[in-house]
Amino acid sequence: MNIQAEKIELVKMLLDTENPRIIESIKKIFKKEKTSDFWDDLSIEQRNEIERASLEIKNGEVTDYDTFMQKHR
Fold it and tell me: Which of 14, 26, 35, 44 has its CA 20 to 30 A from that of 8?
């Protein structure tokens, strides 16, 4: 089935329902899709680690790949 046919099928199902929870769930899906950002799905620890790494990069506290690999071979 192509995308247009899928949309039509969904519209028919939406028009046939009288269940307000289904309608609310669909609205939430669309709202989340519009505002979804991976940052919102990260834990506080993950966010802090990324921010700390960004600060280290800004301050020039980096090691190139070859130097890093030499230490771990």
Answer: 35
Element at 62 (helix H, strand E): none
Residue 14 contacts residue 26 (beta carbons within 8 Å):
yes
Nearest 5°: CA angle at 54, between 51 and 56? 110
CB-based contacts of 26: which residues, under 8 Å, 6+ apart?
14
* pLDDT of 55 higher than 80: yes
pTM across the whole model:
0.44
Residue range 32-44: mean pLDDT, rounded: 79
Distance, CA of 10 to CA of 1 (rounded, Å): 12
